[in-house]
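User: Hand in any protein.

Assistant:
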Amino acid sequence: MNQTLIVSLRHLALSVVLGLGAFSSGSSAFAVEALDPALRPESIQGNASRVFNDMGVVQRKAMSKDERFLLSTYGSFDFSDGPYTNYSINVNPGFALSDFLEVYVNYAPSFLVSARPIVQTVRRLQFEDGSPAMLVSPRPRSQLGLELLWAPAYGKDSLGMHRVIRSDTFLKFGVSRIQFDGDSGLKYVAGVGKTYFMGRSLGFRICIDYSYMQTILNNLKQFQSIVFAEAGLVLYI
């Protein structure tokens, strides 16, 4: 009886082994069929918009500016509460010392000066002796100085889903002398702005400046804080 039991157990073990082998073969075939490369989804990387390129990495610089001559031209608009406007057109030749440092000669050949409403309001007033009150300021004629731009950061902005425009962010420092009618004054500038690259040789630049400059009002020369907005183009030669 023991021999009969032993034979039965051997038959049972053999059946189990054969069953497991058949199951393993079936599973392998199933696995191969489930991982059929023909069923793999197509990659969409090639169809991804350029807007999503370089995400999560350090932005690439738009172009090399090192040792290139520059020409920056822009309009400057003041936001002071002074009695006269102080708008100017600037033409700045410059040179890129590196990809991050640019130095310019600042030259404003002319200014657009006009009286603000406060001038007319004051003129309608009179002193006790009957003489009219006046706000008199000499007109600025030109401006000459130096500017240094430090652009430590690159970035890009999306225009829709299929176009990007690269840019850099810069800090600006400058000093210049303004020539008035019969006198002159100093101007110190610190600003922050961005240059948007329209191509390998052209950029659109905007900047906000804080200026500490000398103004002359009723023969009194004094320093005044004025905020300027600037917008214009820069040419990379």
Q: What stands out?
A: The two ends are 105 Å apart (CA to CA). The longest strand covers residues 140-158. The CA atoms of residues 155 and 172 lie 18 Å apart.
